[in-house]
Structures are given as C-alpha cells and as structure tokens.
C-alpha cells in the first residue's frame, strides 16, 4: 500500500498536481497508516514511513515549482522531520537553503510552494536562509541551532547542504561544552513547567519529565559532542550499555505508540494526554476493562515508561558531564563509611555489587543523603548498580529485618523529608520497600481536584511537612509553622503521610483500609501500640478537619464540640492540622488560599479552647452575645450614635445574629442600617479581606428567590460563593452574609465594589437576575458526577441539614435557590465547597412554619433538586 501511494505521487503529470488530488492522496495515506497502526505494525516503521512519504511529496513539488532548475537552492529537513520521525500531526520543519540572497521571483515561487503545503493542512515550519544566515542565527538561538543539528538533505544542490554541515560542525558554532550546558538548562526550565514530576494527571507525552524530549536531549548532546546520529551509535561510544540502549528504544517506542494513538484522535496538533482523550487513546492501544480500568492500565504503563526515561536521562547526562565538562573521576572522594563515599556532590557505592549482596544497604545510601546536605544525587555507576539490584530483588525490602531498622532510622532523620524520600520515590526504592506503595505508583485520580497521581501526591505531602520547619513559611502557614517544631515524634506524622492515601485504587474506604495497613506497619517496625494507634487514627481521619472546616458550620458550638470529641486531645489536634494542610497543598498548586487558611485556623483555635475548657463545659451563649453587643455598641457610640437608636435597631434582630457575627461586623452593619432607607435594599462589601475573602452583606425585605437572585448576580460577575449565613429579622427582613472570592481565590479588588453593589441593588429592586446561561467548561463535559441529596440528623431537630453533591455546572447555586423558593423552603445557612468538578454543598433549611422539613417534604425537595440538576447537566 505504501509503494502504491508513493507511486501515485510520482505518477502525477505536472498538470495533474492539484490541491484536491494531493489532499486526497494525503487523506488516503493517513487512513492507510491508521489501519496499519491497528494491525500492530511496529511503530518505528510507521513513524519512518510517514517521513518518507512527506519526502516524496516535497521532492515532487520541488520539481513541480521548478526549483530543481535553481542551481543554488537546496531543500533540507530539520527538527523532528530531520530525524525522520513524523507522527500524524507532527510539524514538518523545512529549510530552503541558498548560497546567496533569494531573488524576488524565486521568493514568490517559494511563497506559493509553502502556501500549498499549508493548504494541504500540513503543519509546516519553514525558513529560507543562506548558509551564513544559518550560522549567525543558529549561533544566537539555541532552538535554531538544535534544529539545524538534525538537518537532513532532501533535494536540490547537495554541495550547499554539505557546506552547511561543515559550518555547523565547526567548533566555533556551538562548542560541545557550551551546547551541553545550554541544553541542560533548557531541560531544567522545561521540567519546572511540569512541577518537576512525571506524575501529572494530564501529562505531555513530549515535554513532561521522562517524555520524548528527554530522549531527544540525550541524542542532541551526543550528536554535538560525539557525532552520534542515533541511540545505537551512542551505545557504540560506551555511554549506553546494550541493555540501556534496548531499554531506551523500548521506552521511545512506547511513547511513540501513545503519541500516534493520540494524534489519530485529534484534529489539531497536541501532545497532552488530557482527561477527554485518555479513554479513546487507551482504546486505540487495545486496553480494555470496565469503567476507568483501561485508562488506569495505560497510564500506569505510561508513567512507568516516563520514570525509566527520566532515570536514564539523569544518569546519562551525568556521564556526558564527566566526558564533556570535567572528569569527576579525578576528584578525590570523601569516605563516609566502608560502603559509601562522596565524589563532588554525588554519592557512590565503593563496591561493584553492594546492593545485590546486601540489599538493605540501599537504605544506608539514602540515610547518608539525609544526613549530608551537600549530596545532590547518586553517581551514575551507583545508579546503574541500584537499577540492576532493584530488578533482581526477589522480595520486598520490608521483609528484611535490618532494612526495617534502617527505614525507621530514615523516618526519624530530621533532614530526610528534604531530599531522601523524593529520591527514593524517583528511583523506585519506596516501591521496592513497601508492597502497598508499589500499587499506587502511577495510580490515576479521575477528577479536576487532584493534579498528580496518588504516589506523587503522597510524596508532596511529605515534602510539605518539611516546609513547616522553616520559619520563612510562617506567613503562608502560621499555625503549622508554630505547631510542627514542637511535635516530639515527627516520625508518626511522616508515617501517616506515607499511608494516608495508600489504599486508593482498592475497593472500599481508602481511609479505613489505609489505617489498618498503617497500624500493622507500625507494630512490625517496633512502634508501641499507642504510637501505632495515633498513626492509624491520623490515616483514618485525615479528611476530618478539612471536611469539618469547609463543609460544616464551624461557628456552631455543637459542630466544634463534635469535632473536639473525635480529636480527643491537643496532641492529635496538632498532628491533624499539619497533615491536613500538607495534604491540601499537595493536591493542587492553586488550592491553598487565605480562605482555607482562615477556616482551618478558626477551627483549630476553637477546638483547642474546647479541649482546654473540657468537653463537658459548654460555653455560655448568652455571655458571648452580651459581650459582642457591648463591644459593638462602644464602637457605634464613639461615632455619634445614641444608645437608644442602637437598642431599637437591635431589638428587631434574633439572638443568632449576634452570636454568629463579630462585634466589628455588628457595628459595621448597624452604622449603615441606622442611616439607610429601609424600603430599599442595602448592599455592603467589606473593604478589608474577611477570613480571606470579601464579605457581602445583603439587607432587604425577605422575598422568595432572594438567595437565587443574589448568587446568580455574583456568578454573573465571575465570583464564587464559599459561605452564606442566611438570617431573618423578627419583622421580615433578610440579614444575609455571603463570603465571596474572585477567580484567583482572593478577596475582590476594591475598584469592583461599586459595580457589584449596583448590580445587586438593581436585581433585588426588580427581583430579577437576567443572564445568559453560561456553557459548562470543556473539561466538565468529560466527568459524570451523580447528583446526590442527603439529609443529616441534627441534635435539636429544629432545623434540617441537607448535603448536595453534583457536577459543578455554571449557575448551580441559583438553580438550587429557585427550587428552595418553589417549595417554600427557607435557607438558614450554606457552605459551598467545590472540589474539582464536584460541588459538595451543605445547607441548613426550615419549612414555611420555621421548623424542620418533614420526611415527605424532604422527599419532594430531593426529587425536585435531582430533576432540575440532571436536566441542566
């Protein structure tokens, strides 16, 4: 078929070369390649085949446009095309090379030639340059220099091409040591864009750490210094063992297969394995299973490939460094013990088969890494030895008693969190030690809340704990930086971090399953039962504080008392707050904000007070109300307000209002209300951030759909509601407070306050919020969140607590508010929590009589909410 298609191009007479016929030929070739891919033709053959086909096309068109008559022109393939590596949507990078500047007539023809290529829907990257241009531009631009390094002759004047290669190979173009340093820095910058991890949930096949670019970097450096034009030639220079060469080729082919499978799904060039394409790519690759099983299998294999490439890249660049920059074998080693020494900033094993003879010494090496801050990594020969020993292990390291003792020594080493655990994960040592860890390596998390796999997330939790020891992080983490240094047994917290998500991917509650694993691990490693109980409890309850702070009314003394009862003592509270914050910050780079920090701080200090007071001693609510009123009244009197007018205003409000607001909030509200026309709505926005957000206070005659209108207007302004206190005065006015954040998770900029105030006032005056229904973001379309409505028991039974879980579609709160109004349900309070694509909202409701909802009312409300949400989902 390939020969037939090639002949088809060659058989066209000049008058037959039309855009339509060429496009048909390219379409037929793409379909032909797709079928061959599904027939399991080796991917290297397909990649080369496409490159050869494009060669034929360009050579035919070169002749068609008469360029073969131009003696001083040559057509050159550069970049990936120069390597003869083309995927279905790859860029076709070409260089039209000339000995002298192009004449205008020839330039016009070149423009027509390139335009046709674009019209054929090829992603063309073209440049027209002289040899001198190539030298001068390439010398100043690393990307251009790299592309030229891979130049391959296609047609035209070959002597010009040979002139170019001679110029490019000269030492004064890019000296190999300068080129090496520049490519190394380029790789560091690229890796940083992906948070220096291979384990992003939507990785880039080409650019992620361990991706194809890491293989290209090796080949570019080898080509520049050694003249090696392939991985095979690299192995001939002795920098790759035969096994490593075969492994790199195997990894490259696996990444090529995934990239090819992705490209046949896309219309436009992209190399990201996004959620919306992972299932189709897995299917193209032949993975099968129920639900997400096919994707999980594909992604685990993909992450394994990335890790292998990243490890080989690290090791081989180190060897290049020794050959190109300095010979580090000449640096005198510093002996650490009979098994290890430091040479430069790298740790080396002193014996060639140390890890195979005594596998537990692998942990000794990481103990040295933890104890010596000057160690930056593992020397290439030692890394080779580790890779070999790791593959030949016939049991997990945890089964070796000496290894268990060393592991606990590592956990108790103060500096282990900084570097050792991350290196252990990167080089597969945690998987070799702990069977449960090996199960979560590359374990996907199918949501928009997490951005890393389970193992990478867990390592970042450990890394975050280390940040709490640094006073420089006190502004970002005030409580944890205060609490963490005084925790005596930090190893218990580290073990909890290791195990908190270790049961994800198994059937059942991962917190409970992980708690069992953690307890058994602790006992096996010589911890006392009380210590094991603390670790197990932390794993089981690692979500408790986050859920309570974000989804419960933490200003309700009952909620705080119940939380304190579960925590039991201050020691556990200190452990839990550190684990909670480290967990949240390791989930998503953008998740931690001042709102969450404030919520957790308020819950922490409220619980601390409750524990010190004694859980049997509940606070006197009436004392707190009187205290708030007295302080607020003092502020108001200092501003000229009379005690009598303050008293008359406050007589209209219920006790709950004074309990749930600070004295400063009471004074702020009262100052505005005492000067306001009560026939009109009053909207206040806090000038300073309140609990990390902007407080929006709404005073108006209570009407149906008021909540829906307010949240609809806020949504229109691209603001998110995170908390709502819905209150009524005794005479039928609302005293509602909404805690609002902007799209960046911050308080609203003050220059927007007037616009927002006017919009809300207008909407509440006409009792209507006119808005176009926004489309759901593209990513949401690929997630299915079943709508769940559940009613929770309350201690007094006077109100109804309702939890709603649904897809976080635009305008969700407004729709929910409309349903409440339709059923004459009054909203008393709301906690709005968005976790990726999931809305997990909490509401306190009463019926028309001001009492809890009956079972019948609950069922009717539940059915209406589910119907409404599913209709718009």
Structure description:
The chain is built from 38 helices and 17 strands. The chain has 873 residues and is an alpha+beta fold. It has 5 domains: 2-174, 2-Layer Sandwich (Beta Polymerase, domain 2); 175-327, Nucleotidyltransferases  domain 2 (Four Helix Bundle (Hemerythrin (Met), subunit A)), CATH 1.20.120.330; 434-613, Hypothetical protein af1432; 624-675; 687-872, Alpha-Beta Plaits. Strands 9, 10, 11, 12, 13, 14, 15, 16 and 17 form a 9-stranded antiparallel sheet that branches. A 4-stranded mixed sheet has the order 3-2-1-4, with helices on both faces. A 4-stranded mixed sheet has the order 5-6-7-8. Helix 5 links the parallel strand 2 (92-98) and strand 3. Helix 1 (2-11) packs parallel to helix 3 (43-64) and helix 31 crosses helix 34. The two termini are 46 Å apart. The mean pLDDT is 90.
């Amino acid at each position: 078929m390939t020969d037939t298609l090639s002949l088809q191009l060659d058989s066209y007479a000049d008058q037959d070369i039309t855009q339509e016929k060429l496009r048909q030929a390219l379409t037929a070739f793409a379909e032909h390649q797709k079928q061959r891919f599904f027939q399991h033709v080796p991917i290297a053959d397909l990649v080369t085949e496409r490159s050869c086909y494009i060669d034929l096309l360009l050579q035919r068109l070169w002749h068609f446009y008469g360029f073969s008559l131009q003696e001083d022109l040559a057509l050159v393939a550069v970049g990936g095309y120069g390597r003869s590596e083309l995927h279905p949507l790859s860029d076709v990078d070409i260089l039209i090379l000339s000995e002298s500047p192009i004449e205008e007539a020839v330039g016009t023809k070149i423009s027509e030639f390139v335009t046709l290529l674009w019209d054929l829907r090829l992603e063309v990257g073209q440049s027209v340059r002289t040899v001198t241009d190539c030298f001068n531009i390439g010398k100043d631009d690393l990307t251009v220099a790299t592309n030229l390094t891979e130049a391959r002759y296609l047609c035209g004047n070959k002597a010009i091409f040979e002139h170019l290669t001679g110029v490019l190979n000269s030492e004064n173009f890019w000296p190999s040591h300068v080129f090496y340093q520049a490519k190394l820095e380029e790789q560091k910058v690229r890796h940083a864009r992906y948070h220096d991890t291979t384990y992003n949930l939507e990785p880039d096949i080409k650019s992620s750490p361990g991706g194809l670019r890491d293989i290209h970097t090796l080949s570019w450096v080898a080509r520049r210094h050694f003249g090696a034009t392939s991985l095979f030639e690299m192995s001939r220079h002795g920098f790759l063992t035969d096994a490593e060469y075969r492994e790199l080729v195997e990894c490259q082919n696996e990444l090529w297969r995934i990239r090819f499978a992705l490209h046949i799904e896309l219309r436009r060039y992209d190399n990201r394995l996004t959620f919306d394409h992972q299932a189709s790519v897995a299917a193209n690759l032949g993975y099968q299973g129920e639900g997400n099983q096919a994707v999980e299998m594909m992604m685990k294999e993909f992450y394994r490939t990335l890790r292998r490439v990243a490890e080989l890249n690290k090791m081989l660049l180190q060897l290049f460094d020794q050959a190109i920059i300095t010979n580090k074998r000449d640096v005198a080693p510093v002996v650490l013990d009979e098994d290890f020494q430091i040479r430069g900033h790298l740790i080396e094993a002193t014996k060639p088969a140390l890890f195979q003879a005594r596998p537990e010494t692998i942990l000794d090496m990481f103990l040295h890494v933890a104890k010596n801050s000057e160690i930056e990594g593992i020397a290439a020969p030692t890394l080779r030895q580790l890779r070999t020993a790791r593959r030949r292990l016939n049991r997990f390291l945890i089964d070796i008693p000496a290894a268990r003792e060393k592991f606990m020594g590592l956990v108790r080493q103060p500096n282990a969190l900084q570097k050792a655990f991350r290196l252990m994960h990167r080089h597969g040592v945690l998987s070799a030690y702990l069977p449960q860890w090996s199960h979560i390596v590359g374990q996907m998390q199918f949501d928009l809340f997490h951005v890393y796999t389970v193992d990478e997330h867990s390592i970042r939790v450990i890394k975050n704990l280390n940040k709490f020891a640094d006073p420089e992080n006190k502004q970002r983490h005030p409580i944890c930086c205060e609490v963490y240094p005084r925790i005596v047994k930090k190893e218990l917290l580290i073990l909890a971090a290791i195990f908190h998500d270790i049961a994800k991917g198994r059937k059942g509650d991962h917190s409970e399953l992980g708690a069992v694993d953690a307890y058994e691990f602790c006992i096996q490693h010589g911890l006392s039962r009380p210590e094991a109980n603390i670790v197990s409890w932390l794993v089981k309850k690692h979500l408790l504080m986050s859920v309570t702070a974000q989804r419960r009314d933490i200003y309700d003394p009952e909620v705080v008392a119940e939380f304190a009862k579960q925590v039991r003592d201050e020691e556990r509270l200190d452990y839990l707050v550190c684990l909670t914050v480290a967990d949240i910050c390791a989930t998503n780079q953008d998740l931690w904000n001042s709102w969450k920090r404030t919520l957790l701080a308020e819950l922490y200090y409220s619980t601390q007070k409750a524990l010190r007071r004694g859980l049997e001693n509940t606070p006197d609510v009436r004392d707190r109300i009187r205290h708030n009123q007295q302080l607020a009244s003092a502020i108001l009197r200092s501003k000229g307000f009379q005690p009598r007018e303050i008293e008359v205003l406050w007589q209209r409000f219920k006790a709950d209002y004074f309990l749930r607001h600070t004295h400063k909030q009471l004074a702020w509200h009262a100052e505005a209300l005492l000067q306001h026309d009560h026939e009109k709505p009053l909207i206040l926005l806090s000038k300073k951030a309140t609990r990390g957000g902007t407080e929006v206070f709404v005073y108006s005659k209570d009407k149906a759909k008021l909540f829906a209108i307010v949240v609809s207007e806020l949504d229109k302004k691209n603001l998110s509601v995170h908390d709502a206190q819905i209150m009524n005065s005794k005479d039928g006015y609302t005293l509602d407070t909404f805690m609002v954040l902007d799209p960046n998770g911050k308080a609203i900029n003050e220059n927007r306050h007037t616009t927002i105030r006017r919009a809300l006032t207008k909407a509440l005056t006409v009792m209507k919020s006119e808005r176009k229904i926004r489309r759901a973001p593209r990513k949401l379309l690929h997630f299915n969140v079943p709508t769940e409505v559940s009613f929770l028991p309350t201690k007094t039974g006077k109100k109804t607590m309702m939890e709603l879980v649904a897809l976080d579609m635009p305008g969700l709160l407004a729709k929910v508010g409309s349903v409440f109004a339709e059923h004459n349900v009054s909203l008393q309070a709301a906690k709005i929590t968005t976790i990726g694509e999931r809305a997990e909202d909490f509401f306190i409701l009463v019926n028309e009589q001001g009492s809890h909802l009956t079972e019948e009312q609950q069922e009717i409300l539940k059915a209406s909410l589910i119907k409404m949400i599913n209709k718009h989902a």
